[in-house]
Amino acid sequence: MRNxxxxxxxxxxxxxxxxxxxxxxxSVETLFMMRQNYIAVKENKExxxxxxxxxxxxxxxxxxxxxxxxxxxxxxxxxQTTTKVSGNDKIEHDGDSSKQDALDNPLNKDENKSGxxxxxxxxxxxxxxxxxxxxxxxxxxxxxxxxxxxDYNNKxxxxxxxTELLERGQYYLEYxxxxxxxxxxxxxxxxxxxxxxxxAKGLCYRGYLETDMTNYMxxxxxxxxxxxxxxxxxxxxxxxxxETENIIYILFLNTDSTNMTTSYTRNYYDGMSRDYEYCAMxxxxxxxxxxxxxxxxxxxxxxxAPDLYMEDWGIESDSDFVDFIAEYDNxxxxxxxxxxxxxxxxxxxxxxxxxxxxAYYIGWVNECKLVDDxxxxxxxxxx
Length: 383
Known about the structure:
The chain has helices spanning about 1-45, 95-100, 115-130, 160-185, 220-230, 235-240, 290-300, 320-330, 355-360, 370-375; strands spanning about 70-75, 80-85, 140-150, 190-195, 205-210, 245-255, 265, 280, 285, 290. By secondary structure, the chain is α/β, with parallel strands linked by helices. The strands form two sheets. Strands 1, 2, 3, 4, 5, 6, 7 and 8 form an eight-stranded mixed sheet that branches. It has a two-stranded antiparallel sheet with strand order 9-10.
């Protein structure tokens, strides 16, 4: 019996040693994997925060940093130009669901009204803002007047390269219009863009502007564009023909890859000499062509959508709000127009999002909890 007891004790000891060895082995492997993951994430953040215009890596919240395109105010609230911000992945929220809820799908938001009520609100806003900008409210018919423009430094020729570039630009505009129309439906609105690239149809023009359109800080740029529209486009006739108050003027400019100025938008501001709202699309910048997202981004500016990365909100916590957007909603189309994960240009789709804060500022919803919580500026559509 004693021998049996001794043998049993030895077996139990051996079994215990095996169990402990297995446990220690798994623990070491787990710790090793966790450390490797940590190192990989750390190295990725250090090495891939995004590229600036000259290719240098910079932080996600800096103004000129990146793989993603957004627009920035340059001299006043009425001029917006495109710069870049980093292409980091969207970060999961930290458990504060109230913050993330403010950016959720419109179908889940109780702040949205019925389609009929939204339409009535839109008509009321159109009446209030008549004569206060050519792009009044993104509802119903919106006419796009295209201007294929030569300026002091950049001209469109008859070469195959120029012809194909212009055709691609027109395709990007069409794609942006389709995307914006689909976004309108998500928010309970009907949006119909009307455009035609046939010069004979009266919605497409060729012209020369006696200025350098890349120098958007020069107000002579506005005068040249406004004078061209006055002399060539009968805006009132267009409004009557297409039963709309909405006209956006899109300028196509044949900049080359050496151009370092990005596309910009002139949107309505108090005291504006004429109420023509236009998007100057500089077709090449920093070696890249403009994208469909960039066209949609610029067009949203004409209806009141602001940049979401700029510290220009008139509140003490400007930088905190920018950090919040960078963390919780860095795929918003008013924050970036590049693919949020790869930082690449996309020419055959728009993968960015139009969130509730954009919908509020362009007038598709009348309230936005995010705006209230942060004390942001009110939408121009709220009287």
